[in-house]
Design goal:
Strand content: 5-15%
Largest sheet: 5 strands, parallel
Radius of gyration: 22 Å
Strand order of the largest sheet: 2-3-4-1-5
Shape: globular
Helix content: 25-40%
C-alpha cells in the first residue's frame, strides 16, 4: 500500500495522507500518517500506493468480474436485487483498503453510465464504534446498529442530492422499507450507491450474531445498492462458517484476505522505488526460509505472524530514519526487522505446527 518515490525529494514514500486533510489546512501543516487505509477514489495520491500483497489482486479481480456480470441486473428496478460484498480476514490485513480499492475501480468502470454515490457509515477507517454503542455506553442491540448505519447512509444521500425531498420512509422505523425508498430515489437520479457498512466488533464467539447481521444487509441490498461489509476473524475457518450460514444467493460476493509472506515485503518496498528491484545480494536471504534441521518441516515464515499494518509502519519507520539522517530514502526488504511477536500477542491463529504461547 505504497507508491513510487520521487527521488528528487527527500520524502517518506510510505506516508499516507488522510483524504481531504490538505483541503482543510495549508500543505505545510499536514503530514502523512504511517498507518491509514488507502482511499484512492477520494485522494489521488493513494492511487499508486496500492500493492498486491496477501493476494489482494486476486480478490480485486474477483470483485471486478462480479460487478461486470451483475451491473445490468443492479440497474434493473424490476430485479429488486442489489449486491452484498463481504470482506473477511485477520485484523490489520488491509480489508478496509481493499474495499476502497474496489470502490475506486467501480467508479472508473461505470463512469459516464451512472452516477456513483459512496456512503461511509464508519468514516475512511471504517470504524463501527460510533454506531455500535448506545447512549448508556453499552453495546447496542443489532436493530439499533442497523438503524444507526441507515441514518448515516441517508445523511450522505442528503448531501449528494441537495434540494431533493426525501420520503419520510427514509428515516422511519422500518429499515427495510427505507432501503426500498433509497433504491427508488437512486433509480430516479440514475445513481448507484456503494455503501460501506462499518466494521463491528461483535461479542459472540460463535458468529451467530455476525451471520444474522449479514443476512439483514443482504436483504437491504436492493436495486442500485452495493453494500460492503467487513468481518474480522482470528481463525480462517471462521470466515467460511459465517459465510456458509448465509442463504445461497447470487447477490453475494466473498472476498478473503489471509496472511503475509516474506515475498510481500519485497513487493512492498520495490513499489516505493517505482518497481526497481532490491539489490541482488539481499533478496535470496529474505525469500528463502531456513529449515529447522534435516528432515524437519520448514520454519514458519516470520512475516506470517505480522499484518499489513505492521509492515507499513516498519517501512515508514526505516524511511523516516533515512530521511532525518539527510541521506537518500531507499528502503529495501533487507532493512526491515522481521516480527518477533508471539502469535498470541498479535491476536491471531499461529501457522500449523506452532502452538500459541500460554499466558503465565
Amino acid at each position: 500500500m505504497i507508491g513510487p518515490l520521487d527521488e528528487t525529494e527527500n520524502a517518506n514514500p510510505f506516508g499516507v495522507y488522510v483524504p481531504e486533510s490538505r483541503d482543510r489546512l495549508p500543505a505545510t501543516h499536514v503530514r502523512p500518517k504511517a498507518d491509514h487505509p488507502l482511499v484512492p477514489w477520494k485522494d489521488e495520491s493513494h492511487v499508486h500506493q496500492w500493492v498486491d500483497v496477501d493476494h489482494a489482486r486476486e480478490q480485486l479481480d474477483l470483485f471486478e468480474e462480479c460487478l461486470q456480470e451483475e451491473l445490468p441486473g443492479l440497474l434493473d428496478p424490476e430485479a429488486r436485487r442489489g449486491h452484498l460484498v463481504v470482506v473477511t480476514g485477520p485484523v490489520g490485513m488491509g480489508k478496509t483498503t481493499l474495499i476502497h480499492r474496489c470502490v475506486h475501480w467501480a467508479q472508473e468502470y461505470i463512469e459516464g453510465l451512472v452516477r456513483p454515490v459512496v456512503a461511509m457509515a464508519g468514516g475512511y477507517e471504517n470504524l463501527g464504534d460510533k454506531v455500535s454503542w448506545d447512549r448508556r455506553g453499552d453495546f447496542a442491540q443489532t436493530p439499533e446498529i442497523n438503524t444507526a448505519i441507515r441514518d448515516r447512509i441517508v445523511e450522505t444521500l442528503e448531501r449528494e442530492f441537495p434540494g431533493v425531498s426525501l420520503d419520510p420512509t427514509f428515516t422511519g422505523d422500518d429499515v427495510p422499507k427505507a432501503f426500498s425508498a433509497i433504491s427508488k430515489l437512486l433509480a430516479v437520479q440514475n445513481g448507484l450507491l456503494f455503501a460501506i457498512v462499518p466494521h463491528i466488533d461483535w461479542r459472540d464467539a460463535g458468529g451467530e450474531v455476525r451471520t444474522n447481521f449479514l443476512k439483514t444487509w443482504l436483504s437491504h441490498a436492493e436495486s442500485r445498492i452495493v453494500l460492503f461489509v467487513e468481518i474480522s476473524h482470528q481463525n480462517p475457518r471462521t470466515a467460511g462458517e459465517v459465510i456458509a450460514g448465509l442463504p445461497p444467493n447470487t447477490a453475494l460476493t466473498h472476498l478473503s484476505l489471509g496472511s503475509l509472506a516474506t515475498e510481500d515485503t519485497v513487493k512492498f518496498t520495490e513499489t516505493a522505488r517505482g518497481g526497481h528491484p532490491d539489490p541482488e545480494d539481499t533478496v535470496p536471504s529474505l525469500v528463502a526460509i531456513p529449515s529447522q534441521g534435516q528432515g524437519a518441516e520448514p520454519a514458519p515464515d516470520p512475516w506470517s505472524l505480522a499484518d499489513v499494518r505492521h509492515l507499513r509502519r516498519e517501512c515508514f519507520r526505516v524511511a523516516e530514519r533515512q530521511r532525518l539522517a539527510g541521506g537518500r530514502v531507499r528502503v529495501t526488504a533487507a532493512d526491515l526487522a522481521a516480527p518477533t511477536l508471539d502469535p498470541a500477542d498479535l491476536g491471531r491463529t499461529p501457522p500449523a505446527g506452532r502452538a500459541p504461547r500460554r499466558p503465565a
